[in-house]
Amino acid sequence: MTCPRCAAGNPAAAHFCQACGLDLHSGDASRRCSYAVKPDEPVASFALVSTIMPRGAAQHPQTYRIALGIGLFVALIAAVFGALPIALLVAAFTVPLVYIVYLYDVNLWDDQPVQVTLAAFGLTAVLGAAFTWGWTQFVPATSLVRGPDLATLLIVGVAVPIVAHLLIQLGPVYLASRPRFDDLMDGLTFGIVSGVAYSAGDTLVRHGDALLGGFDPGADPATWVALVFLEGLVKPLIFGTAAGIAAAEFSGLGRGYDGFTGRYARGLAEAIVATIVYQTGAYLLSFLPVFQGVALTVVLGLAVLAVLILRVRTVLHKALLEGALEAAARDDQRVGATGELAYCTSCEMPLLAGASFCSVCGTAQRTRPRVAGAFAAAQPAPAPRADEPVPIHPGPDGPPSPAANNPAAGNPAPNDNEGVQS
Questions:
Q1: Helix axes 84-105, 221-229, angle to 10 degrees
Q2: Quick one: which of 19, 92, 109, 286 has the fewest CB in 10 Å?
Q3: What are the backbone angles phi and psi of residue 2, rounded to the nearest 5°?
Q4: CA distances to 114, 141, 278, 351 from 223, in Å
Q5: Quick check: 379 pLDDT over 50?
Q6: What residues contact 25, with CB distance under 8 A and at least 6 apart?
Q7: Which residues, 6 or more positions from 232, have their beta carbon under 8 angstroms from its beta carbon?
Q8: In sequence order, what are the beta bridge partners of 395?
Q9: How confident is the model over 303-331, as pLDDT tens digits?
Q10: pLDDT digits (tens, 9 = 90+) for 77-93
Q11: Selection from 54, 52, 13, 48 nearest residue 36 by Cα
């Protein structure tokens, strides 16, 4: 069975193309009904583990689900019984610790555990705690309880998310710019772990009084349960998935990392806007009665998180299909791992050899702007006719005899695969 997308050969029983991942048994060219990380899930799904932990999702996803569930359960039980310091500590570190275990489990740090952990987690956690302490000292505490005002709203809801994401991106950008970590999936992962690290530092500082207050049997269990769920799961995943989108665009598609491109600017803008929506809503809702405000903030956070999860899955799904198509194009054009490929000007997917149309979006490639000398360089040399003499090229030891290139003289032509230089 020949794949209509990349022309790779497949067994007759194949459901997906082994080269580019196309679904051979349906008209779903973009595989919207079959997520590239887990084909039994649609792309538009809210499955958490296969979104934020894609490298281990196909092997043992239950391990990560159970670990997250246990951490959140312990935090909620502690909140119910008034052990607020334990509840907040467990809530703040559940997602980051599970994610560090995930990094170890899939060996994402490539035998550099200290460097990767410090750059992706430690640095951002410290910066997040320091920044949160700074802006909470700058904004008077009375302005957070007396009623909403425009100046505080602009600081808490707009300025803080912008600076926060600039700080969050430091570690992922540093790691993704290194050759061994320039894959889009690596950038996504480093962005997520950096985002959840910032959230942990922010939570510890903003709830420092409760951490130092000890056991409080008079605390309202419903309010603290909602707060622990918000701080332990919803907020870290909002910051993590938002930062992951931006870091993934920094890594980009194709060989090497894309760097500070328009795509990265758009991804960073998406991350900042999503966080602004969450932070602004949380600030305005904080002036409602305590339980109502926290509960509605949880609802708002879940809505923002749902949008971010769908966005992450779309980015990752497209990247995996693009990577497979690029590998097929390299094999088709025999350019190797470091050779230059032609990419579609519309969707940026790699083009197969001699393609007049993009195999992904269908854009005609003859409409691309001309580059001086590019057309002539791209055309193969015409083969000589049978009645024309074969040109003789002098070698390092002088011109060879005509018989050296004449099969009829008992000297067969050299193998086409030998002596070819890329």
A1: 20
A2: 286
A3: -100, 130
A4: 38, 21, 19, 56
A5: no
A6: 15
A7: 71, 72, 75, 90, 91, 92, 94, 95
A8: 398
A9: 999 999 999 998 888 777 777 776 666 66
A10: 988 888 888 888 998 88
A11: 54
